[in-house]
Write a structure and sequence with these properties.
Blueprint lengths: L3 E5 L3 H10 L5 E6 L21 E2 L1 H10 L5 H8 L2 E4 L4 E5 L2 E2 L9 E4 L2 H15 L3 E5 L1 E7 L4 E8 L2 E6 L2 E4 L7 H7 L7 E4 L4 E8 L9 E4 L10 E11 L2 E10 L9 H10 L5 H6 L3 E2 L4 E4 L5 E4 L11 E3 L5 E2 L7 H14 L11 H24 L12 H17 L3 H11 L11 H9 L13 H15 L1
Parallel strand pairs: 1-2, 1-12, 2-8, 5-15, 12-21
Antiparallel strand pairs: 3-7, 4-7, 5-6, 9-10, 10-11, 13-20, 14-17, 14-18, 14-19, 15-16, 16-17, 20-22
Length: 474
């Protein structure tokens, strides 16, 4: 192995990109402006880091592929992550009813704080790949020409430095300056699409009440079909601390339906704005461990940059992760998309090396393909909300929305359709999975049983829920 790669950003996307490149080059240098603690601590460069994050099945599969020899699932569970079965371990209310709790243990995802996941992935990459190292510094711009990028200018405590590289990968996240850096090299006119619902996230961490045991992940979905602002909420089990089990409670609202930042307003929102009071009923008995953290504006927009369509693209440069495309975080697909892009980055070196002409252009086109499905999922729903900017629903969008609603309604009581839906949302299949003949027929026939209007609790959960309601009514 010869050559050097420089990766901008030490988040999930950056560290997995480093893992992808490690077998193909002599050394990989990851440039990160934040001081990285030896442990799961929130850092400045993750403005969404204190809100809910989900690692979908497709993302976990990609991580396994990038770290062969490591049981990534077991590694993350040992670090504190929680595994959830969508089939049996989820309470989810759609606009048309509750998902059934199916008699299957399938379609798992992992939940934990973003800080834990970032730290665990970073530690795994650094411990297993000796040719990957992290340099603390801020990337200032690219070095090179419109024909070839040759490195990155970096500001460190010692001053400005130049990191030469055969390949630069920008995984710098939502705050990436890559469009401006390309313009400095003479590459401009990059097309960009922004769809913004004005989403605001508000999150607070609680100690799980002692009376509540093994409560499932609880999700109250927003309703994009009523012509009103979308309002959603979830209780997410996260890694415990020394005091015991914890819940992350995240609320979200599009413009006109924003959750408040004050504790009283946060709690009131769970009763007054959501489709069911269950979240409020549960956290009314829970001990708050943090203040309410609220994020809004630019950090929640859907943004897609069409680098793959640029007439000119330099050798030696690739853009991945949130620097390429960001999605409304309500859909929980960003990290998994970045992981799958890293696999594509690794596979690009099967029959090439960092000096192969056209390699960078090929990589850029290939990683962009991973954006298509999640982008369609997010934007086709988001354009239905009032006050959205950047797009308006077309006739095709409204037809797709009607079909998507029928899929979701049927999936609540049909395990085969639910399985197809989770394959897509979990990034193990593209949207075409929902149009396969078997799934299409079941969807067109409609729900095979009455929709669930009552929350589908197991006997012990129902007793607990009843006790909590009784206390609130006293």
């Amino acid at each position: 192995m010869t050559g050097r790669a420089v990766v901008i950003g030490a988040g999930i996307g950056g560290m997995l990109a480093a893992a992808a490149l490690a077998p193909a080059v002599g050394d990989v240098v990851v440039v990160e402006p934040d001081a990285l603690a030896d442990g799961p601590h929130q850092r400045k460069g993750l403005p969404q880091g204190q809100h809910a994050h989900l690692l979908m099945a497709g993302g976990l599969d990609a991580m396994r592929s990038l770290l062969p020899g490591l049981d990534v699932r077991r590694y993350l569970l040992d670090a504190g992550a929680v595994e959830v079965s969508l089939a049996s371990g989820l309470l989810a209310r759609t606009p048309d009813g509750w998902f059934s709790r199916f008699r299957h243990d399938s379609h798992h995802l992992l939940t934990c704080t973003r800080a834990l996941l970032d730290w665990a992935v970073r530690a795994a990459v650094l411990s297993r790949l000796s040719n990957v190292k992290i340099v603390q510094g801020k990337a200032l711009g690219l070095v090179g020409t419109a024909q070839r990028v040759q490195g990155v200018r970096v500001a460190t405590d010692a001053g400005e430095d130049l990191l030469r590289a055969d390949l630069v990968v920008d995984a710098g996240g939502r705050g990436s300056r890559i469009v401006h850096w390309l313009a400095d090299l003479g590459i401009d006119g990059i097309q960009e699409k922004v769809v913004d619902t004005g989403l605001t996230n508000a999150t607070r961490i609680y100690r799980r009440p002692a009376v509540v045991t093994d409560w499932p992940l609880t999700l109250l979905q927003a309703d994009p079909y009523r012509g009103e602002p979308g309002r959603s909420g979830m209780i997410l089990p996260i890694e415990p601390d020394d005091g015991g089990e914890r819940w992350m409670v995240s609320l979200a609202g599009t413009k006109g339906g924003e959750p408040p930042a004050d504790p009283a307003g946060f709690l009131a929102y769970t009763f007054d704005a959501l489709a069911d009071p269950v979240i409020g009923e549960l956290i009314s008995h829970a001990e708050p461990l943090t203040d309410v953290v609220r994020t809004r504006g630019r950090m929640t927009r859907n943004v897609r940059r069409y680098f793959e369509q640029s007439a000119k693209w330099p050798e030696g440069l690739a853009v991945v992760g949130d620097a390429l495309a960001t999605f409304n975080p309500a859909y929980g697909q960003g990290m998994s998309v970045a992981a799958q892009q890293a696999v594509t980055l690794r596979d690009a070196f099967d029959r090439a090396d960092v000096t192969t002409p056209g390699l960078a252009r090929g990589i850029q086109r290939a990683v962009a393909e991973h954006v298509d499905g999640p982008w369609t999922t997010a934007v086709s729903q988001d354009v239905l909300y009032p006050f959205v900017t950047g797009a308006a629903p077309t006739v095709a969008d409204r037809v797709a929305a009607r079909y998507a609603r029928r899929v979701a309604a049927t999936a609540t009581v049909s395990y085969p359709v639910a399985r197809a839906l989770w394959d897509v949302t979990g990034l193990r299949a593209g949207p075409a999975r929902l149009m396969s003949p078997g799934t299409l027929l079941k969807v067109l026939l409609g729900p095979p049983a009455p929709l669930n209007t009552e929350i589908p609790l197991k006997p012990r959960e129902r007793r607990t829920h009843r006790e909590l309601r009784c206390v609130l009514q006293e």
